[in-house]
TrEMBL record:
Keywords: Sigma factor, Transcription, Transcription regulation. This is RNA polymerase sigma factor. Belongs to the sigma-70 factor family. ECF subfamily. Gene3D superfamilies: 1.10.1740.10, Winged helix-like DNA-binding domain superfamily/Winged helix DNA-binding domain. InterPro entries: RNA_pol_sigma-70-like, RNA_pol_sigma-70_dom, RNA_pol_sigma70_r2, RNA_pol_sigma70_r4_t2, RNA_pol_sigma_r2, RNA_pol_sigma_r3/r4-like, WH-like_DNA-bd_sf. The keyword rRNA-binding does not apply. Residues 121-173 form the RNA polymerase sigma factor 70 region 4 type domain. Pfam families: Sigma70_r2 (PF04542), Sigma70_r4_2 (PF08281). PANTHER family: RNA POLYMERASE ECF-TYPE SIGMA FACTO, RNA POLYMERASE SIGMA FACTOR. Residues 24-90 form the RNA polymerase sigma-70 region domain. It comes from the Bacteria.
């Protein structure tokens, strides 16, 4: 496990910045990729958003004040970048973001990067029916096992609201799976 304070200091120091940035990317790219992928659904979009996320992290590391964990700060950037990407693409296609996500989930079968079976596809379809915030909360808790405390930092909301969102999301997913 890397020392977060040491990494941040190395990222903020010109002489060690490039090496520290490579370490940051190698340490967090997979987790951030899958977090982003659950939001934007497709591999190509996740790849684009991940690249934009790391560019934003690199450009803004000197603004990181350490009031939250580095992990939480990066996840917040990744989440915001993914949502912005969805909203931008939805606007271009003249859809709302929920319609766009639903469309992407329906196209997952033909996505060469999707390795899931019929049950995983059905779960993705169920998740796509949730309101956007519930999708985020469900994915972060169910797939990534992020604590409510860390989620509260990432999404800038209360733990209680997150627990409620997760509970409602689970109920809606269960209902969807039973009905479909």
């Amino acid at each position: 496990m890397i020392d977060e304070v040491e990494l941040i200091n190395s990222l903020k120091t010109e002489a060690t910045r490039e090496k520290a940035y490579r370490l940051l990317v190698s340490t967090y790219k997979e987790r951030l990729y899958w977090h982003i992928r659950k939001i934007v659904i497709t591999h190509d979009d996740a790849d684009d958003v991940l690249q934009n996320t790391f560019i934003k992290i690199f450009r803004n590391i000197n603004n990181f004040k350490g009031e939250s964990k580095l992990f939480s700060w990066m996840y917040r950037i990744a989440t915001n970048e993914a949502i912005s990407h969805l909203n931008h693409n939805a606007k271009i296609l003249q859809l709302n973001s929920e319609e766009l996500i639903s469309q992407k989930v329906n196209n997952l079968k033909s996505d060469v990067y999707f390795e899931g079976d019929a049950i995983q596809l059905k779960l993705q379809q169920a998740i796509a029916t949730l309101p956007h915030k519930q999708q985020l909360v469900f994915n972060m808790k169910y797939f990534e096992d992020i604590t409510y405390k860390d989620m509260a930092e990432i999404l800038e909301t209360s733990e209680g609201a997150l627990k409620t969102s997760y509970h409602l999301a689970k109920q809606k997913i269960e209902k969807f799976l039973i009905d479909n």
